[in-house]
Design a protein that fits this description.
Length: about 325
């Protein structure tokens, strides 16, 4: 009973602290509640997030505002076609001391931070994009045979524009898989747009207060992993993931028709962890079916690859995954009670 009361107290504290960050972000960002939830979920899990949307919808502003609300180091990298890996990671440079002796010294690049805004990440060449792989997966940088560890927690929040594709380089599947969520930022509604005008055209500047630091984020990451995931719910996540594998034993009809490749195990891991965050926010210390269903789309939409038929018919990854979600039963017949 003592453990149960302790968990309840921790869950309540988590909800309050989570809300405090969301409230500070809400001072600047109008609407986009699900997008803010998605970004915060990624940070509480300890992973990276890809924001996709048309220009001017507040993607960059959201990341900057979040960095201001957290007592973490922040850097911004503007990705361009002429950006090189050394511009991100850093490079060895010759330095001269007071005695005139010269030696190589590593000059750290902007990736040595805790929150890295990779703005318009798809405008850099594949060679430069590949420089992010090690940092995103392992939190380290290897240059000149030396391995450097990044300060934790470390997050990459990347943005990309889906409309203008001239001069862009689509992210390779290996890099996409390292993003926990892909969030699609949409337009504001009538009331939200009116509020944006009020906030931005009257000469009033609002800045969020810093309400959380890295040590506290790491503490919540540990709590999230203690949330209970029952066997039948774990199996539901497994079957939802396997249902995206074309010609697999659990594939549904739309998967075989429209998908070329399905989700990796990282997709299942992301769904499980994100569902645990949702459970805590709902005041529970155990995951429910609804928690899983709410995080399924942002966790897997960038991990499945539609085939030519889907592209020709205009069938999107979201449409395929929503159909999978409807077709996969919540309970399996072969799973013991």
């Amino acid at each position: 009973m003592n453990d149960e009361l302790k968990f309840q107290k921790q869950a309540e504290e988590f909800r309050e602290r989570y809300k405090s960050i969301k409230d500070e972000v809400g001072k600047v960002i109008v609407g986009h509640d699900e997008i803010v939830h998605g970004v915060l979920t990624c940070m509480m899990i300890g992973g990276h997030c890809l924001l996709e949307g048309a220009p001017g919808l507040g993607k960059t502003l959201l990341v900057r505002t979040l960095a201001q609300a957290l007592n973490l180091d922040f850097s911004r990298i503007q990705f361009t076609p002429d950006l090189m890996p050394a511009d991100i990671l850093g490079t060895n440079m010759i330095v001269e001391d007071q005695d005139g002796r010269r030696a190589f010294e590593f000059q750290k690049g902007p990736i040595f931070t805790q929150i890295c805004l990779a703005d318009e990440i798809n405008r850099a060449t594949p060679k430069t994009q590949s420089a992010m792989l090690e940092t995103m997966q392992e939190g380290t940088v290897t240059v000149g045979g030396h391995r450097y560890t990044l300060k934790q927690p470390f997050f990459v929040l990347a943005t990309q524009n889906p409309i203008e594709q001239e001069g862009t380089y689509p992210l390779p599947e290996a890099q996409l898989d390292r993003f926990l969520f892909k969030l699609v930022v949409g337009y504001s509604n009538r009331e939200e747009l009116a509020t944006i005008l009020d906030r931005t055209t009257k000469g009033v500047s609002v800045s969020p207060e810093r309400v959380m630091d890295g040590d506290e984020i790491i503490k919540w990451q540990g709590l999230i992993r203690d949330v209970i995931l029952a066997n039948h719910l774990r199996d539901y996540i497994v079957r939802l993931t396997l249902a995206t594998h074309p010609e697999g034993s659990h594939a549904v009809e739309i998967t075989n028709q429209y998908l070329r490749w399905g989700s990796s195990p990282r997709g299942a891991q992301t769904v499980a962890l994100a569902a645990k965050v949702r459970a805590l926010l709902e005041g529970r210390f155990n995951v429910s079916f609804e928690d899983i269903r709410r995080v399924y789309l942002p966790a897997l939409r960038h991990r499945v690859i539609p085939n030519f038929e889907a592209q020709a018919e205009g069938v999107t990854s979201d449409q395929i995954l929503l159909e999978v979600l409807d077709r996969v039963p919540r309970k399996a017949d072969d799973l013991p009670e």
